Amino acid sequence: MSAKPRVLIVDDEERFRTTMAKLLTVNGLEVTAVGSGKAALEELKSKAYDVITLDIRMPGMSGLEALAEIKKVNPAIEVIILTGHASVDTAVEIMKLGGYEYLLKPTTTEELMNKIDAAFERKMTREQKTRKGNGS
Amino acid sequence: MPGKGRIYRVRGGMNFKQSILPHITSILICLCAVILAFTGNLSFGVAGIFLAALAFVTTRKLLQKLAAANEQACFLDEKLVQSQKLASIGELSAGIGHEINNPLAIISQETEWMQHVVKRIGGRNSKEVAELQDSLKEVLHQVDRCREITQNLLDFARRKEPVYQEVNVNKLIDDLSRLVKKETIQYRIEIRKDFQRDLPLVHTDAPSLRQVVLNLLTNATHAIEKDGRIRIATQRSGNGSVDIIVEDTGCGIPKDHLIKIFDPFFTTKPEGKGTGLGLSICHGIVDKLGGRISVSSEVGKGSTFVVTLPINQQKGMSPS
Predict the structure, then answer these.
(1) Which chain B residues have a beta carbon less than 8 Å from that of A22?
(2) DSSP B240
(3) Class of the B83-157 domain?
(4) Per CATH, is B165-310 categorized as 3.30.565.10?
(5) A83–chain B nearest CA distance, Å
């Protein structure tokens, strides 16, 4: 387990994902950014991540489809939905699919950092419990 | 509706032709009766006058019923048009809100990044750097303002299903009046509460109702500016419903504004002070709760908003 969260940003808006990656990096996170759900699934094959921030409206595979696929590949990864297109129905769907949190754009880096920290902490606590369970 | 002479909508009612019709009918029968009496048949004359009176009363009653039905139909038509208008504008608003959120997110991030770069460059004592930091802070402040607007648009468009529970409306309003108390004291606005004591519990969605009442109270405070009175009243009205009345002694609303008052984006507040969505949201909420909201106003004297809610009905009131 790494001490700082490994974060994967998935957003089709290039400028958004690159600047967000820079902002999270200067805040001490290990960040990779990709432009589609498909690219995110490819990325997960080669590297382990703790938290994923995921846009909903993307060409090709939608954020919700990507979320379902990500959870199939690795249910332990915490997914934060970060979108400008949100509704209560979508929020309910996100929670049903196992999403951790839901943030509406625009958000501040501070707010996003807090959510990522909380998601990472939850993942670590769960993994510790699993290890203790396996050990006993 | 409280506030004499302040009802802006005059719907239905008998028109001139309808109001004159019973008189013509009875006059004609009376004439026939007089002619019959003069020709020597007094009993026919008396019967004719009786018939004339009966015709007058019956025709008038029938016309009144017709006018009432017409008024109800007009009201429902108006309500339907308003609901359809709000629904379509709601969809458009949601679309705009969503589309603006994405570029706003980029503006916000780029500004945060610039702040970071300026900080990294250093030179905090330089006047130019201070100016630049101040400008960047202002950009973020304006992004926040836009975010609030898009959030309002999304709230307006949101089709949130109400969660019904038994609500003590008097208590709900009393709590909210305390919330605006600070502002009303500051501007010397008296709040008068006329609650009906034995008001039944209302089966409704408390958070939504709170939003509506708070909006009406805030608007009333703004309309008065300073030195005035807000009267909040509750009463049981007919048709299994209750009325919540918010009356102010503020500036009032001109007639040409009254017809647009529930339209989205309609505002008379100065730029940056209001989005013009508050009353549209209230209208949408009250509609969803199965009730209706009406307004009457007179310029220079004040306005009265009446929210009528069904006591125990989830799908709306039956037409009165």
Answers:
(1) 113
(2) T
(3) mainly alpha
(4) yes
(5) 8
Q: Please tell me the total count of domains within chain A.
A: 1
CATH number at residue A27: 3.40.50.2300
Phi-psi region of B290 (alpha: psi -120 to 50; beta: other; left: phi over 0): left
Domain boundaries, chain B: 16-81, 83-157, 165-310
3-state secondary structure of B39: coil
Question: How many Cα neighbours within 13 Å face the side chain of B35?
Answer: 6
Residue B15's Cβ-count burial label (10 Å; 0-12, 13-18, 19+) is exposed
- Across-strand partners of A7? A31, A51
Distance CA B45, CA B35 (A): 8
The interface pTM score, or ipTM, of the predicted complex is 0.83
Domain for residue A61, yes or no?
A: yes
What domain range is A122 assigned to? 6-135
pLDDT tens, per residue, chain B with 320 residues: 333 333 333 333 455 555 666 677 767 776 777 776 667 677 777 777 777 788 778 888 888 888 887 776 776 666 666 666 666 666 677 777 778 888 999 999 999 999 999 988 876 668 888 889 899 999 999 998 888 888 777 766 665 667 788 899 999 999 888 878 878 888 999 999 999 999 999 999 888 898 899 889 988 998 998 899 999 999 998 888 999 999 999 989 888 888 788 877 677 665 555 667 788 888 888 988 989 999 999 999 999 999 999 998 654 444 33
Residues 4-43 of A with CB under 8 A from B: 13, 15-16, 19-20, 22-23, 26
User: Coil, strand, or helix at residue A52?
Assistant: strand
